[in-house]
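agent> call fold_tool(seq_1)
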Amino acid sequence: MARRAGMRGRPDEKLDRIWIGLSSGSYLPRRVLRRAIPKDGGVGDEDRGIPTISDRIAQTVVKRYLETAGVEPGFTTMHMGLVPERSGIQALTIRRRCWDYEG
């Protein structure tokens, strides 16, 4: 098996540690690697956080679990975080409308 950059140690042992941490509730993500990525159009940079391989694996496990558990059908149209084609800006716009209506 070819070794990849960033994967130190035996992959099966690493996966076991991730799984044990997730299933026991003790998994703690590591600090992300901050990198400046050039913006489209070449004007300025944008800071991005690059998660570790272990964190990406943990994110994928949780995402697949939530998808197979059927969590998404329980969301209403007001939920923004996990609904495709929704954004934080839309959430703020809807919340502002609610404040105007309530007040």
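agent> call fold_tool(seq_2)
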Amino acid sequence: MVISMKEEEANYLKLKPKLKEEIVIIESENEKLFYLYDSTSEDMYVVNYTGKRILELCNGKRSIEDIANILRREFNVDLNKLLTSLYKFIKEASRRGVVST
């Protein structure tokens, strides 16, 4: 069975990512960067404010579409550009074990 791009996009928008419980968000001294500390693996990652805000919204109840709409209102950005960036961010965060999808 071949899934069309529209089906794939629709499925992606329905995903409900969740920040993993072992991830702790720590504010840095300059208040522009945030550390993500994985208490299980002891890995540490750095994100900017937008990345932190995305992760705060990843509660397992909000869909990608819900998150995108919240961010669009908060940051007043183009929805298509936002969805592209959000897709890349969530994919990388999932690959690194920061969120589950």
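agent> summarizing second result for user.
The chain has one domain: 5-96. The longest helix spans residues 79-95.
agent> awaiting next instruction.
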